[in-house]
Amino acid sequence: MRSPVVCSPLAGRILAFSDVMPELQLTHTKDREEHNLPRNDTECQSMREGLERLPRMKHRPGTELRFSHIPKQTYPEGATPAQITQYSMDLSYALDCLLESHYRQEPLHVLGELQFAFLGEIPPDFFVDIVSQDNFLTSTLQDFFQFATSPGVDGTLRKRAEKFKAHLTKKFRWSFEVDPEESDPVVVELPEGVTLE
């Protein structure tokens, strides 16, 4: 898939956390005084003051993910008011511009970028059902993987499903193994002398 390569930071590595640095290097108390900021060696009088003392952070250059630029103007130059309304509702013009500027050769790769953005940002507990504390997605995927890896399925699909399963297992530590107690038939031992008619 091309999208993760396109989205990769210039530094060449995608980190599990944002690599940030302070906007201003305020190493010493005199540096803070030069910027009219309160000294760090005095007690804060409020939560707001405490938050204002924290350094303003920015991404370290070259470490941010590089997603495709989505145009701010969502309609073409010279569009009529009706066209502006239409393009602003469905954003088709913005999508066309995005595809033309970044994905002319392979327009379906924009889906890869969307998947990359989605999988990279969701926390592991995102799919947990708050009421039951069960992960509704894992049970659905468990059924899918059980079907997709069965003997009668096309080999390419089976390999992709196994690779996807391995990825999800590694990233979210989900188990897709079927509990034998849930799926196997139950064998009941009859007491001695009892027969079924």
TrEMBL record:
GO terms for biological process: spliceosomal tri-snRNP complex assembly. InterPro entries: AAR2, AAR2_C, AAR2_C_sf. Transmembrane segments: none annotated. It holds the Pfam family AAR2. Residues 67-119 form the AAR2 C-terminal domain. This is AAR2 C-terminal domain-containing protein. It comes from Synaphobranchus kaupii (Kaup's arrowtooth eel).
